[in-house]
Specification:
By secondary structure, this protein is α/β, with parallel strands linked by helices. It has two domains: 45 residues; 210 residues, Aromatic compound dioxygenase (Protocatechuate 3,4-Dioxygenase, subunit A, Sandwich), CATH 2.60.130. It has six helices and 13 strands. Strands 1, 2, 5, 11, 12 and 13 form a six-stranded mixed beta sheet that branches. It is elongated, with a radius of gyration of 23 Å. It binds benzoic acid (BEZ) and fe (iii) ion (FE). Benzoic acid (BEZ) binds next to helix 4.
Length: 288
């Protein structure tokens, strides 16, 4: 191995794997190392640039903890998270999208039609739809989680003025696969920029805005769990999401709401402002 050269290094390294190496691991590693080495050769990476890259990763490690993961954020702003989502999204089903760092377990369960607005200020909206299989049949008992920003663009776990589970609920679909809730319109917000990801965005003249969205996790036995987001069609950042999470099937219209047309199980029905919006959105789950 003492005569290793830029031309032989990649193959030499990959030949070191033992006979018991998992074949998929070897396949992934082979491509990863080949692309990494090709990248360094293509740009003729200097020592200073290589050190800077390692410094960035070291800082990402230092700023990460159980609440914040800067590596995931790097993956998000470099488009890797969304690329993995898109590669693994089966056709004919609702697209998946980034989970983001602000999901927490244990959101309180509401009945179908329940209210998530509580004391929150903001434009009110009733969101309703069904969870379906690929044949368009309703899925009963699907577990839905919803979380979103308050009117100030903050998630409850970043805002000491919000209760722990503010604007976070879970719900189970009925026999007709239906879910429904009243909430407020979420606000656009900035991904965290106080770490190395922010430095990278800055250095490349990119902004950190995400279009407003409702996060959903939809899970049902026998189906692949769907992690996704749903965006209003008039959001100014729809075509410039800092983490590339928007898919055309996830963009929905906020129509003018009609109180009389609301289902009787919408518990906030009479309390809603006169100018509330209505959003209809079905989820289609792929088989497991
Ligand atoms: C979010 O949608 O909550 C999010 C996603 C990716 C990075 C930061 C935030
Ligand atoms: Fe989000």
């Amino acid at each position: 191995m003492r005569n290793v050269s830029p031309d032989t290094l990649t193959d030499t390294l990959l030949s070191l794997s033992g006979p018991d190496t998992d074949p998929r691991l070897q396949q992934v590693l082979t491509a990863l190392v080949a692309h990494l080495h090709a990248f360094a050769k293509e740009v003729q990476l200097t020592h200073a640039e290589w050190r800077k890259g390692l410094e960035l990763l070291t800082r990402a490690g230092e700023i990460s903890d159980s609440e914040r993961n800067e590596f995931v954020l790097f993956s998000d702003v470099l488009g890797l998270s969304s690329l993995v989502d898109m590669i693994n999204s089966p056709t004919g089903c609702t697209s998946s999208s980034v989970l983001g760092p602000f999901h927490i377990l244990g959101a309180p369960e509401l009945p179908v039609g329940g209210d998530m607005i509580g004391e929150n200020a903001g434009a009110q909206v009733v969101v309703e739809g069904r969870v379906l299989n690929g044949d368009g049949e309703p899925i009963e008992g699907a577990a839905i989680e919803v979380w979103q920003t308050a009117d100030n663009g903050l998630y409850s776990n970043l805002d000491p003025d919000q209760a722990e589970y503010n604007l976070r609920i879970s719900m189970k679909t009925g026999p007709d696969g239906r879910y429904a809730l009243s909430t407020i319109r979420p606000a656009p917000y900035l991904v965290p920029t106080d770490g190395p990801v922010g430095d990278l965005l800055n250095a490349t003249g990119r902004h950190a805005w995400r279009p407003s969205h409702l996060h959903f996790i939809v899970a049902a036995e026998g189906y692949r769990t769907l992690v996704t987001e749903v965006f209003p069609n008039d959001d100014p950042y729809l075509d410039e999401d800092a983490v590339f999470g928007v898919r055309s099937d996830l963009v929905m219209e906020y129509r003018i709401g009609d109180r009389e047309a609301l289902a009787p199980d919408i518990t906030a029905r009479e309390a809603l402002h006169d100018q509330f919006s209505k959003v209809d959105f079905d989820f289609v789950l792929p088989l497991a």
